[in-house]
Amino acid sequence: MKDSSFKNNAATNGGVLFDSNQKSIELDNCIFANNKATKNGGVIYSTNNIVVKNSRFTGNTANYGSTVYSKNSFILFFQ
User: Fold this and answer.
1) What whole-number distance in Å separates Cα of residue 14 and Cα of residue 74?
2) CA distance 48 to 56
3) pTM: predicted TM-score of the whole model, two decimal places
4) Pick from 12, 28, 31, 53: CA 20 to 30 A from residue 3's CA?
5) Closest C-alpha among 41, 46, 47 to residue 63
6) Does residue 33 or residue 74 have the better pLDDT?
7) What residue numbers bound the domain in which 23 lies?
8) pLDDT for res 21
9) So where does this one cross the membrane (predicted)?
10) Structurally, how many domains does the chain consist of?
11) Distance CA 73, CA 59 (A)
């Protein structure tokens, strides 16, 4: 995803994005604000690798992982 904005979304897992496929996720120049998950990953729930570039996360909430819940994978953040 590139040049996108996600605000005020909600889900049980992954308030914006739930990914359990075998592909990695790349986010570039995105804004994630006030999203929530009632369980895991206020913005993202993923079992795959995640690359985040020049993105902003504010006011996101979840029981576990207010921004990202990552299972058996790695996350790279770049500014």
Assistant:
1) 16
2) 20
3) 0.89
4) 12
5) 41
6) 33
7) 5-78
8) 76
9) none
10) 1
11) 24
Name the token pair of 23.
Answer: 């592909």
Burial class for 77, CB neighbours closer than 10 Å (0-12, 13-18, 19+) = middle
Find the length of the chain: 79
Structure tokens at 63: 């029981």
What gap in Å lies between CA 72 and CA 79, rounded to an integer? Answer: 24
Please give the Cα distance from 8 to 24 (Å, whole number). 24
Per-residue pLDDT reduced to its tens digit, 4-26: 999 999 999 999 999 877 678 89
* Type of residue at 23: K
pLDDT in tens, 52-71: 999 999 999 999 999 999 88
